[in-house]
Amino acid sequence: MEHVQEKIVQVTGLRKTFGRRVVLREVNFEFSAGKIIGLVGPNGAGKTTIMKALLGLISTDAGDVQILGQPVSVNTHTVVTQEVGALIERPAIYPFLSGWQHLQVMTTSTTQMAWVVKALQMEDYIHYPAKRYSLGMKQKLGIAMALVDHPRLVILDEPMNGLDPQSVKRLRHLIVQLAQTGTTFLISSHILSELAKIIDMVILIDQGQVLLQRTMTQLQASAHHSLVIRTTENPRALRVLLHAGYSVTRRHDDLIVAKSVALTPLLRTILGAHIQILNMDQQQEDLETVLLGLLAEGKR
Ligand SMILES: Nc1ncnc2c1ncn2[C@@H]1O[C@H](COP(=O)(O)OP(=O)(O)OP(=O)(O)O)[C@@H](O)[C@H]1O
């Protein structure tokens, strides 16, 4: 029997205006279960608004949201309460309740609570009243509330906000681990280097529209390669290469030659000027560079 991948999220023709301001134009995307999806785009692109619409937290002007084949709107969110965990913007935290009591609102399972507290390393303060929590501790509690009870879909808006590097690393591992056991994640983040380490797919939003939806494999295939060259005389090598028509920049002790160029003439140019090459390497554009390039292309 053919294995059909279950659509976990399906968004069709989503439109949202605030007064006369069009915030979502015609948003369409869908993805299947067990993946980590990055929702990225410039400030004000509409990412948070999309996440709120997915959760039935805001009314929309047109379009349709389905999670696991069930409709979601401000009036219909059974599937959200049963299958989705989320942290949007800042976590809603009651100062006089402890972290543990916040988790008790989300689940009746102490096993689940203990699991998430351990997974996010919150043991030391989980029984303190939340008013004593730092920004990062509150953020972790918000994430814990989204993850407890293992929902099938987890929506996280800027989850790395306020977390120390160790916590970021721990959260990254946890997300990957949970995704391997079938949890689907939709994560927005401006820290593209962090996101790139875990996501399977990118949905790029710009001005209330989906500019593109690509798998990381597709993005990597379209990434440009550059050559990183170190010579005994970088300033002169730079001049020689620029003069020969190459597109070169300097970065620290390296010269970066953009895109793929034929090696032999390049080497001949450098060696012909009696400059020695100390090191040479191929480098692939990172996610940030690729996405910024695509955004600029989209604007044209
Ligand atoms: N309640 C509201 N009333 C009016 N405008 C709003 C409201 N909520 C959001 N907007 C506007 O909608 C646009 C999209 O906002 P949204 O928060 O979805 O963007 P974002 O992509 O999440 O941005 P960021 O990366 O800065 O978090 C922004 O221009 C914002 O000013």
Automatic annotation (TrEMBL):
Coiled-coil stretches: none
Protein name: ABC transporter ATP-binding protein
Keywords: ATP-binding, Nucleotide-binding, Transport
Source superkingdom: Bacteria
Gene3D superfamilies attached to this UniProt entry: P-loop containing nucleotide triphosphate hydrolases
Keyword field contains Secreted: no
Similarity remark: Belongs to the ABC transporter superfamily.
Domain ABC transporter intervals: 9-232
Annotated GO MF terms: ATP binding
PROSITE patterns: ABC_TRANSPORTER_1, ABC_TRANSPORTER_2
Source organism: Levilactobacillus fujinensis
